[in-house]
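Protocol step 4 of 5: obtain the predicted structure for the target chain.
Materials: sequence only (see below). No template structures provided, no constraints applied. The aim of this step is simply to have a reference model before the mutagenesis design in step 5. Sequence pasted as it appears in the construct record:
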Amino acid sequence: MFLRCLSVPSIFCSHLTKSAIRKLTMKILNVAEKNDAAKNIAEILSRGGSRRREGLSKFNKIYEFHMNLNGQNAIMLMTSVSGHLTNYDFLTNYKSWHSCDPMVLFDAPIAKHVLKDYEPIKQTLQREIRGCQKLIIWTDCDREGENIGVEVIDACREVSPNIEVLRARFSEITPSAIHRAINQLTTPDYNASAAVDVRQELDLRIGAAFTRFQTLRLRRVFPRALSDQLISYGSCQFPTLGFVVERFREVDRFVPEPFWRIVVTVSRNEKSTEFNWQRGRLFDQDCCRAYYEHLCQNRYGQIVEINKRPKSKWRPTPLDTVELEKLASRKLRMGAKYAMQLAERLYTKGFISYPRTETNIFPPDMDLKSLVRIQTEDSRWSGFASRILERGPNPRNGKSTDKAHPPIHPLKTGGQLQGDEARLYELVARHFLACLSADAEGAETIVRLCVGKPSLPRTTPTNSSQLLTSEDGEMFESKGLMILAPNYLEIYIYDRWTEKDMPIFQLGEWILPNNIEMVTGQTSPPPLLTEADLISLMDRHGIGTDATHAEHIETIKQRLYVGLEQNKFLVPGQLGMGLVEGYDSMGFDMSKPNLRSQFEADLKLICEGRRQKTVEVLRYHLSKYKELFRIAIQQASLLDRALAIRLEQEAENVRNISGSVGEMASFSSNINNNTASTGSSSQGNTGSASFIASCPACRSDLVLRQKRSALRPITTGSNQSDNYGSMEIGQTNNGGWFLSCSSYPNCRYAIWFPDSVVHVRILPESNATTCSQCTNYISPSVIHSSNRSGPSKLGLRFRRNFHLPNGYFQDDDNKEYITCIFCDEDFCRILGIRIPPVPPTPTPTPTPASVNNNNSTNNSSHSTNPFGTRTNQSRQMITDQSVPTFQQTRSLSTLAPPPLSHTSAFSSLSTMNNDNYEPFSPNSLSNISGNSTSRSFPSVSSTNFRSPPRTQSIDNEHDSDSNNNVLCNCGQPAIQLTVRKPGPNQGRLFYRCSGSTGNTCDFFLWKTSATSLMDTNPPLYSSTQVPQRNNDTDIWSRPTNTFSSVNLTNDRLVTSGLGTSESTSSGVVCRCGEPAKLWLGS
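Step 4 output (structure tokens):
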């Protein structure tokens, strides 16, 4: 019986063996945030022994390896996602922009769904989780990383509801950090994830509502400027834009105030030392002059104080995210978003610690010596790192910590890095070593001089009681500096501390200054914001987080609400400025940081567990934005008016706004006192300087306009060019100038200038500034009412270094070319400007008298224009071809203004005065050779002017070097090159500017064998926009994914500013996306 009890069936033995094996071996799915992170973590945990296999997503691999986890054997599967796996969105009934009133979006049902491109990632997770006992989350340890981790958990629990979930927390991908994380697994932070859900829902609802409202309304109200523009709104991007606008207003409204100060100069040992007045600056010139005259009469002074003291320059504190973004912007000239992308790459490669941290304090238990010892292997600073090890790391800590990640620091040497990655790594490494070093030490000497005695005293003072005081004269001070120990400055090349020599002075010594001068100056405005300044403001006011600052700045740049001036300063565009002004006029604080900063504060409370009811937080903040939205809809006319002024365009297709832009001048003055300088003139103002000519189509006035893009930045007044230089935001200098009928849109007659023309003005009316030969462009009523003899002449300014074959050379930004464009046929032909033909007037039934008159007209070489006046045929603008009637031409794109060009979105407009410059006109060429003027211009025969070559055809059967037939935008022959890089274009020939590096234009043109165009006329070599008309209701919108066409007229390629009626697609575009312009000679 005893033996029978001991016997066990073999089936039970087999079962126990398998069960024991299952208990001893676990299967664990590990999920990282990115594939690179998964690869590196697997490499560390497997000690290089992981096996890679493919997942359902080709971008997210699976790494399999065995390891011992807490005493148990485990099969580890490591894979990844690619950021957020899911996203909030409205249900199908609300997704269409026209499906509902935007107000409904504040309460419309939403749901989280997997992004379409990420479905394979979710399928991989659900396939691999089957059979696993645990799930370990390895996403980034910040708020967004926690939310991504919860998204992974939700996807896995759809298949394995009871899966055990653990969280690995780490700040760097190094062996020590990863092994510490796997041995100290914890639970996910669901509070941080809930805060992200609240933020995502609020951003979705208010962003969708305001964006749909703004875009749909403003596209309809301003179809000429905003027909294809996405006008987005975000609760972070709008306050970010508000900071830029507010600083711009400060600069624009700043009124310089003159001041005066007194400087005393003392020379000793061939060195001059300046002593500054301790009274500083006086804003009363008479008062300062009284002091100055007194000192000139009492020039002797005495050294009354010599103070020597140690001086230190503090080393930096440890590096957090905000400081990294600011340093990368200021020192490396990198955009904040680009810098963070580089930092993320360096982090995933294991070169630096986690780059998104609010901590600038090194933890007490952090092994800094080991990190410094690694840097001794880098030859660039090995000696400096060795000296730190000798005396021990001595960090200068900051004041903040997020208790999650340490400050950003290097983890290994970066000698193998290249490009911008190497530059950013070097910044991190140098900053790390600098903050562990010592402050720079120096000695400062302060010498005070009292001036106010008419002569030297008879006896020299022997003690301090006989020294002069402030009652005896005026006190002046000078400082000298000697650096004794640079310390951290040896490694930190981004800081400067300049020595200033100070001659040796003796206390009580009497001085006769070499010079006493009253210096004048004026107060200066604050500088425009840089990205670093903007990040500081966002951080100070709680807009976004350290992880999102760069994203918000990039968003307003991509939306073209702001642009960069001198590739450094942020300036608002016309659209961005108009939006802020419109909402400000409603009494809103939407451009202020208050609303968003309160919301961010509540999100922090949710993360800390101090606000549990996330639904209440969301409902509270949504209600505030919903009320603002309701008022914005009611007062939308104020937004229309603000943008009408900024865009210099009439508001169209709305009933709740009346009056023209000119009638809104009072509103403009309330906004910013910044009304437009180039407006429109209406019929009847023909006696003013704004009249040019009469419209040949409808007899209204032709007026000068500039297509003022909604995306073009604003200048800060006449002194802007002095303070900040020229605008560099659109990569072009296209002014978008054109003549149009004042009766638009009823009449769409227009004449466009090419983008080589940067400014146009109408000359004041006089006999010398009107053209008496072009009477066919003046209606009889105008001649009768104003006694004008012809249309007004124009003054045009071109791009710098632009020249015309007649000898005009734009060597000065303020020099003008004076001409009448209606009869200067050479000028129009050279620039590719086509004057739309004058439609013939209905011919009355002829009578015998009228037949005789017509015959006599023809015999005397005159013709009758539409207004019934006579003009000489040599100046007539109608060609021999058949001329369509006005009704016909309205259907052609020749009368449509050009589409909005994103490449010239931020065009530059010079507003300098021309009073000091003598205008140039074609008729003044005879004076050039005779040197009758004070200024000279290159003549036609000058070596500075190269006449454009003439050609019969262009092909790609032979190379053309200096004798090629294509001119670039500089007006010079382009060079022909061949594509060598492997790809679809390898072997193709193309043209580019022949200028030297750094002095080239952006011209680009493919050379095609199908191009063989012959002409004997003078050449075209302008860079001109070619407009294209989409439809009858929206003629100024930009075509999407289409190229503008060209005209083939008399076998000649015409790239005019007026489009075409019989077009063929060239398919040739320059790098900016606009049609390339081809010069053809005869």
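Step 4 remarks: The chain has 29 helices and 32 strands. Residues 190-221 form the longest helix (32 residues).
Proceed to step 5.
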